[in-house]
Amino acid sequence: APLLSTHHLGQSIHFHESLPSTNEAAFRLAQDGAEHGEVVITEQQTAGRGRRGRTWVSPSGLNLYFSAILRPELPPQRAPELTLVAAVALAEALRETDADALIKWPNDVQIGGRKVAGILTELSAEPERVHFVVLGIGVNLNAGPEDFPPEVATTATSLSQALGRRVNRALFTTALWGRLEEWLDLHHEVGFDPVRQRWKELSATLRQEVLVRTDRSELRGVAEDIDVSGALLVRTAGGSLERVLAGDVEQLRP
Ligand code: BTN
């Protein structure tokens, strides 16, 4: 069996054949006192959640769906950094298999411009203190094009589609958890800067012409940088630099 190199992450596992959503299950466990590093993992989700109210297609037996409970020593306003920590770990774990994975801001992981993994972070906090964070990750490992509904099939891919071979889920999962714990530890000890530097190296978004849709508006320009809190900085045609904290990015010219 593959060796899990972590100290905390995934050392306690709650496995299910089927769940509505691992994020939902992990949130409840955390409310009941589950510890830092406990993981909920399932073969399939019947109501997998994506960002911005979307669903995450979660067929049985093929892919990876898990949520980690984290109890970070962070002020609530810095919790979003953890999503970028996870994106970096994910991109690195995928690249370790030889796939050319890159991060689309803020935290979609892509291969060849198609989405292979997603991250959904949910937070329970008071103004001054984080109770816990649920870090939910879905990775399309062995799904074929036929496993996605038609409207998703054109924008999604899986690691096995990219590599042209089946992927061992247990091996990939332990490799990912190892990376994730390393980056979480570094983030805890050193702060966000090394994460931000690595994120920039792995970014598919920076230097690209983008269209950003937020809840309120649309913004067009060149993605120049991410700032110290992970917000995207977009240079508009008028020359101003706009800061985007949350939204969807469409790349206009690849
Ligand atoms: C996104 O929209 O990109 C985020 C997708 C996150 C999906 C994962 S699968 C495991 C965990 N449980 C959920 O319900 N969602 C996340």
Automatic annotation (TrEMBL):
EC number of the protein: 6.3.4.15
Positions contributing to biotin binding: S21, T22, N23, Q45, R49, G50, R51, K115
Transmembrane segments: none
Domain of life: Bacteria
Single GO MF descriptor: biotin--[biotin carboxyl-carrier protein] ligase activity
Catalytically driven reaction(s): biotin + L-lysyl-[protein] + ATP = N(6)-biotinyl-L-lysyl-[protein] + AMP + diphosphate + H(+)
Domain (BPL/LPL catalytic) ranges: 1-188
Ligase is among the record's keywords: yes
Keywords: ATP-binding, Biotin, DNA-binding, Ligase, Nucleotide-binding, Repressor, Transcription, Transcription regulation
Enzyme class: ligase
Family according to the record: Belongs to the biotin--protein ligase family.
Purpose: Acts both as a biotin--[acetyl-CoA-carboxylase] ligase and a repressor.
Protein known as: Bifunctional ligase/repressor BirA
Organism: Archangium lansingense
Gene assigned in the entry: birA
